[in-house]
Amino acid sequence: MIVEFGHFALITAFILSFAQGVLPLAGASRGNIALMMVAPAAAISVALAVTLSFLALVWSFVTSDFSLALVANHSHSTKPLIYKISGTWGNHEGSLLLWILILAVYGGVMAFGSRAMPMALKARILAVQGLVSTGFLAFSLFTSNPFLRLSSAPLDGKGLNPILQDPGLAIHPPMLYLGYVGLSMAFAFAVAALITGDVDRMWAKWMRPWVMAAWCALTCGIALGSWWAYYELGWGGWWFWDPVENASLMPWLAATALIHSSIVVEKRGQLKSWTVLLAIMAFSLSLVGTFIVRSGLLTSVHSFASDPARGVFVLVILLFAVGIPLSLYAWRGPQLITTADFTLTSREGALIANNMLLVVATAIVLLGTFYPLALELITGARITVGPPYFNATFNPVMALLVTVMTIGPVMAWRRGNTARLKPVIICAACGAILSCLAVLSIGSGFGIGPMVALSLIGWLGIGISADIWLQLKPSKSSSLISRAKRIPRDVIGMWVAHLGIVVFMIGAVGDNLLNSEQVVRAKPGDVIKIANRSVTFSGVKQVQGPNYQALAAQLEYRDEQGRLFAVLTPEKRIYNAERQTTNEAAIRPTLLGDDYAVLGDGDAKIGYTLRLYYKPLISWIWGGAVLMALGGLIAAFGRQRVTKSQPTNAVTAGPLSSASKVGTR
Amino acid sequence: MSQLRISFLLPLLAFSILALIGAVALYSTLSGSRDPTQLPSVLVDKPAPPTNLSKLVQNNSPVQSSVTLASFRGKPLLVNFFASWCSPCRAEAPALEMLSKRISILGIAYKDRNDDTLQFLKQFGNPFQAIGVDQDGRTGIEWGVYGVPETYLVSADGVVILRHAGPLTRSIIDNTIIPALETLGS
User: Fold this and answer.
1) B85 touches chain A (CB under 8 A)
2) Does residue A650 register a pLDDT over 50?
3) Are residue A435 and residue A566 in the same domain, yes or no?
4) B87 and A377 in contact by Cβ < 8 A?
């Protein structure tokens, strides 16, 4: 009964979201208030209906209702509860429903809040949202219905792919989708602006929290995915330049550019058409990502629910959702051109440089991801584009970006010079030189790439610290506390996020330069030396898990003095229901570095393959990502109201500019 | 009045090209002429491409010698494409070590710097009879290498018997490589 109810709720949501997409658009162009009022009401109803539908599906997973095809195929009665719940989105149909749920909830929140926004703008934004969710609801209902029953229910389910049975992966998809789908809000803002034909500062101001929220979630989502790959795939790597990873990186890069360009729109009323394009691009790229992952067109270590037949539907959605806005952009975009009133050496100039570099980086990733596919179609040759390509192209662009990152924030709008500019650059340069020297004193023989990365860590880290100090330095008239109170929250957020990049780089460079690795075939009693520690392999033993059996190796880690400081037990698990084996790496994470051990193949006679790593500083990579997301949150929601938005009862359906510009002048 | 500007059409154009690639790829996948999960090699049951590479030597060594596939004629040969920058290659190192007791292995260092390759061999062992250097990846293209690691079994008369993309695991060795070796009479 609950299942049928969920199915019915989904159909209701489909019809309502179609209404949400069509009626307000007509209303906004004719100035019909009643039709515009449909938008928030419909958006809230869609959010409720989809939530109910999703809960119904979660319920059938929790209660292991194997009469449902989806549950029978992807769940098992012996699975721990958390994986029963996360199993809801551990498959194509369920994760699509989660996608729709997040989209609908964003729409509902937008409908509920944003009261200050002109009604026509709000109606159009919600309408665009409604059209997007109509497309995805149709996708779900017509090709990937999660509520299909089986005529005879099996006694037990087939289980969930064991490498997805993992706490990291339980929250990774929801996080990632919060990011992907959050970008649909920016997209809706952009399309609404193109329909209206006008962009103003308030538009950017209203859009920014949505973009920031989406960006934070995307940052966390990508970090979680990378973390999962690190500990679950058992290769000790954290980024593989895999198509699916690239698919999440591209919208992230575009969203990062969008965050920065929307500042220019908000503060200076410039870069309007560019910002609109970026907003469309960011969401388009997340749709492209969905397309790649769902269609299985590119082979990946991360894709688990792919089917080319579904790819057709995603492609059709993609054609509408990207093709129409880009056509609209070609037509209406030129209206948004403004004449530049700033020199290149200004805050605007630095932000433009940031945008250029980020877009180039996005293009590099896009090319690296799609080129093999294009080449294969034209010549039939199969190639992979791997780390060598990305290291040679992506990293230099990022290096330039970090270079600008120190200077940009201390420049003034319009003309570059501020009192802080010179001291910050001097400090940053000293930092760069010092970090280079410090490393050279420890050892030599590092390549040019790591040396540049190290000096950039000094350049950015010291540069930001100098900026913070100069802005907080107590003077005669004001103490440190009172100066700190006057600093806008978005500046604090920026500092935190940019310091996150420093932390991230320390982790990436540390792992790259200093990691040590031992692959051995060992018999019980053998001692393996790795990075100042000696590891005693004291044998393997059988372990019985809730839904698996495992072989666990006992590894005793001793330091130079021979003191035992850790016992790691990497496992090889055999999952009963799914008949699959996985390697569970054992990791002892510390701030200084991770001990990482994997148990490979072998038996008692010939010994077991052991892969041991010591990965210095690697946890800083994810620490950096957390800081970035935290900075984003501070900037998004802790903002001081500089200009109080005018409460507009703008019932005029015409250009929203007349109503909303009042607030900014 | 809005006028059409070329630069504003570019995003649409770029997207159309991408969508076209996606559509064609999808069409050929659906019509069955392309399978992204299988990596069939056109080389199987065909003669291995004639391969002549410069041999991996210590950097300061003045001797420049070459390694050819032809010199291995007469007994079965395993050809393994690897690189120091590839993590799965490290993982399969013990497997190759084990196999090297049964069959000679020709290693091809794919798109790698000599220093790095030598370092890699020092760290993970050298199961190879000889190592050819394929710095620009040309040989990889001739063999149709999809990505490293990749392993080919070549018969005594120089015909490719099987190809495996990805790291060699115990089960692949036991279920695929060893039986194929046995049919070759090795």
Assistant:
1) yes
2) no
3) no
4) no
Three-class DSSP category at B109? strand
- Going from the C-alpha of A69 to that of each of A3, A9, A10, A14, A83, the distances in angstroms are 11, 19, 17, 22, 18
Closest-CA residue of A relative to B30 is: A308
SS3 call for A373: helix
The reply to whether residue A373 touches residue B28, judged by beta carbons under 8 angstroms, is no
DSSP A565-626: EEEE--EEEEETTTTEEEEE-EEEE-SSEEEEEEEEEEETTTEEEEEEEEEETTHHHHHHHH
**Which residues on A lie below 8 Å from B34 (Cβ)?**
376
Q: Are A623 and A507 in contact (CB under 8 A)?
A: yes
- Are B29 and A297 in contact (CB < 8 Å)? yes
d(CA A68, CA B139): 51
Same domain assignment for residues B20 and B67 = no
The answer on A457 and A599 residing in a single domain is no
Q: Based on the domain organization, do B31 and B56 belong to the same domain? A: no
Asked if residue A210 and residue A138 are part of one domain, the reply reads no
Chain A interface includes B141 (CB < 8 A):
yes
Chain A, chain B: beta-carbon pairs less than 8 Å apart: 123
**In whole angstroms, what is the distance from residue A645 CA to residue A146 CA?**
43
| A68 shares a domain with A104 | yes
Each residue of A481-492: pLDDT tens digit?
Answer: 888 888 888 899
Q: At A393, is the pLDDT very low, low, confident or very high (cuts 50, 70, 90)?
A: very high
Pairing of strands B130-134, B104-110: parallel
Q: Is residue A180 part of a domain?
A: no
> Which structural domain, as residue segments, surrounds residue B156?
52-183
**Chain A residues whose beta carbon lies within 8 Å of the beta carbon of residue B4:** 330-331, 334
Q: Which residue of chain B is at minimal alpha-carbon distance from A242?
A: B147
Exposed e or buried b for every residue in A22-31, given b needs 16+ CB within 10 A?
bbbbebbbee
pTM above 0.90, yes or no: no
**3-state SS assignment for residue A115:** coil
Phi–psi pair at B47, nearest 5 degrees:
-60, 140
Q: Is some CB atom of chain A closer than 8 A to the CB atom of B86?
A: yes
- A121 with A244, same domain? no
Residue A148 within any structural domain of the chain: yes
- Measured between alpha carbons, how far is A448 from A431 in angstroms, rounded to an integer? 18
- Residue A81, number of CB atoms within 10 A of its CB: 9
Is position A275 within any domain? yes
If asked whether residues B28 and B64 sit together in one domain, one would say: no
pLDDT confidence of residue A658:
36
**Is residue B15 in a domain?**
yes
**Helix ranges restricted to H, A113-151:** 119-143
Q: What CA–CA distances, in Å, run from A273 to A209, A590, A656?
A: 19, 46, 17
User: Scanning the structure block, which residue is given the tokens 């790795």?
Assistant: A530
Model confidence at B39, pLDDT cuts 50, 70, 90, reads low
**Average pLDDT, stretch A625-649?**
70
Dist. CA A419–CA B1, nearest whole Å: 44
Q: How many domains does chain B have?
A: 2
Contact A236 B87 (CB under 8 A): yes
Do both B21 and B58 map to the same domain? no
Q: Which of A148-152, A293-297, A298-302, A398-402 has the lowest mean pLDDT?
A: A298-302
The tokens describing B56, both together, are 């991996």
**Interface ipTM:** 0.77
Would you say A178 and A221 are in contact if contact means Cβ atoms under 8 Å apart? yes
Task: Tell me which residue range forms the domain holding A456.
Answer: 419-514
Is B46 within a domain? Answer: no
The answer to whether position A178 is within a domain reads no
Q: Which residues of chain A are within 8 Å of residue B15 when distances are taken between CB atoms?
A: 284, 322-323, 326
CA distances from A640 to A151, A210, A271, A484, B72 (A): 59, 16, 23, 13, 74
Contact partners, residue A471, CB within 8 Å, separation at least 6? A420, A483, A487, A491
